[in-house]
Amino acid sequence: MNATLMAPNAQYQSCLDACSKCMQLCQECFRMCLSEPDVKAREHCILDLIDCSEVCATAASAMARRSFHIDHICNLCAIVCDECASECSKFKDEHCRMCADACRQCADECRKMKSM
């Protein structure tokens, strides 16, 4: 691929990567939470995982195509990621800890998008 064609997305790459990683870890955590004995106690977290995964996928897609709405989408993504990190942090499982970390990193990257 021509390097000139890739250059415009370079400014988004760190955030795009964080969103993709967060989406993946939310999906994995969702699956693992369904296998935990306290599924009912995780209901809010599970719903947040689904929302977070979807918003992260949308944000990554918007950045890849250089949408005119990246600021708004990334702002929403940061809000949803913060909420998901907060919910995941309530549980001590390794998958929840890893997901919460990815959500926090994604939220931080999305907030940086406002300054671009």
UniProtKB/TrEMBL annotation:
CDD domains: DUF326. It holds the Pfam family Csp. InterPro entries: Csp_YhjQ, YHJQ-like. This is Four-helix bundle copper-binding protein. It comes from Clostridium muellerianum. The lineage of its organism: Bacteria, Bacillati, Bacillota, Clostridia, Eubacteriales.
